[in-house]
Specification:
Length: 190
């Protein structure tokens, strides 16, 4: 018997490289986290998912009985397809949020044609290959340094390092600027 797993019902698949592990020992009650792979208990064919921090049998009215093979639906990819004995699911187009928070920028003087030192926020799990999304948490077009003027305004350069989000404020104008306080909403995506 072949079952198509309806993946929208399993929040686990909102991440990159989610996997299904085939296990010979029941994982029922074993601690897990939201990034844990699914477990297929081979002797019984019962599929387990991470629920409230522990593995529990996954069931819906359309997914009961013994699982003999698994297939993937977009955006997931099963290798091999279908998975009968061993295999993995991956999602090459899915993203996960590694970190979400705020970064308040310094209000120290920035000389003409210069940048501030990097201002940072710890974002555990961040890699240099991750994408940083940064937006102001309010309208800053009336705040010193960010007012749109013909003489220029400050520019913010945001980049990742291991476990850290970095932001440098650079002055493109011909005069020094002491910016007023602004806060960035930041998110690390993978």
């Amino acid at each position: 018997m072949k079952y198509l797993l309806f993946l929208f019902a399993i929040p686990l698949f909102a991440q990159t490289n989610a996997q299904i592990a085939f296990v010979a020992t029941s994982p029922s009650g074993v601690a897990c986290n939201s990034r844990a792979s699914l477990r297929l208990y081979v002797p019984s064919g019962v599929l387990f998912s991470c629920q409230s921090g522990h593995y529990a049998a996954f069931s819906t009215s359309s997914a009961t009985g013994t699982v003999t093979s698994l297939t993937a639906s977009s955006p997931l990819v099963a290798t091999p397809s279908p998975i009968i004995a061993t295999g993995t699911y991956s999602c090459p187009t899915c993203t996960i949020t590694v970190f979400s928070g705020t970064l308040t920028l310094n209000t120290t003087l920035i000389a003409s044609a210069a940048c501030s030192t990097a201002q940072t926020v710890t974002a555990t799990g961040t890699a240099t290959t991750d994408t940083i999304i940064a937006t102001f948490n309010a309208d800053v077009t009336g705040i010193t340094g960010y007012v749109p003027l013909t003489t220029g305004m400050l520019t913010i350069i945001v980049y990742p390092t291991v476990n850290t989000i970095n932001a440098k404020v650079c002055n493109n104008t011909s005069a020094s600027i002491t910016p007023s306080a602004v806060t960035l909403n930041v998110r690390v995506a993978r």
